[in-house]
Amino acid sequence: QVQLVESGGGLVQVGGSLRLSCAASGSIFSINSMGWYRQAPGKQRELVAGITSGGSTDYADSVKGRFTISRDNAQNTMYLEMNSLKSEDTAVYYCNVEVMNWSRYRITYWGQGTQVTVSS
To answer: Model confidence at 109, in pLDDT bands (50, 70, 90)?
Structure first.
């Protein structure tokens, strides 16, 4: 089993910054892709940013130039640096991790979610 612990959400004013973290632990042989998703009230969950094991990144158009995704493979941790936050960034943010366990099975896990609220 794998556990994902998210942290770093909170309340921030428009134009402010936050840094989210997602730490994975448990039965992990390796971690493949990692990503951040978000879900605002009444909306579908959407991909915000993703990062491969090799460090290639991808971003939703709405966050390009403002958000930066990164990972620390030694610590099995992923980060999302969010700058110039807008009210429309308000959502619950979820980390998503594809793990290869010691039996060489690939399994995708979700974090519990962390609330980000951007106020004007």
So the answer is: very high
